[in-house]
Amino acid sequence: MKRVKGYRSGVKKLFAIAFIVVVFFGVGIIYWQAQSPRETAEKNAISFARKHADLKSETAFYLFNRKQTYFTVAGTNTKNQKIFVIIAKKGGATKVLLQNKGISETGAIALAKKENPKKILKATLGLWSNNPVWEVTYLNNSGNLCYVLYNYKNGNMVKSIQNI
């Protein structure tokens, strides 16, 4: 039996392509599974806010983890007011805030930039000691993780942890 020249290299290439495709889909499935709990939490929080806080449309979702987990939905209510709806993961306690009665996400990030961070990672709204706060997480110039909490109503620093 005569072999065609290049047969082995063709099989190797086919195997390599099949391996890459399997790895690609495997990584996609893992990523999808990892995102699933957050997406479920977001959908549930939006549904809860629509039922209990007159949310008409949503513009953002925040996940806040400190002593307790909170889900925050930003959006507009049925009176066309811009609101934040903060929902406790345990117990479902809800706090509704008018967006014009406190500092914005952009404002909280601007306050954190006064710390001269290397990179802002995220800003999220939640409750700390039953008070609304913006948590801004960033990397300092040494590359260490830091976070700072700012009071939602006046922008005062509530807590700062550096070099985690």
From TrEMBL:
Keywords, ordered alphabetically: Membrane, Transmembrane, Transmembrane helix
Keyword match Transmembrane helix: yes
Alphabetized Pfam families for the sequence: TseB (PF17881)
Residues annotated as transmembrane: 14-34
Keyword Nucleotide-binding assigned: no
Residues of the Cell wall elongation regulator TseB-like domain: 45-87
InterPro entries: Cystatin_sf, TseB-like_dom
Name of the protein described by the UniProt record: Cell wall elongation regulator TseB-like domain-containing protein
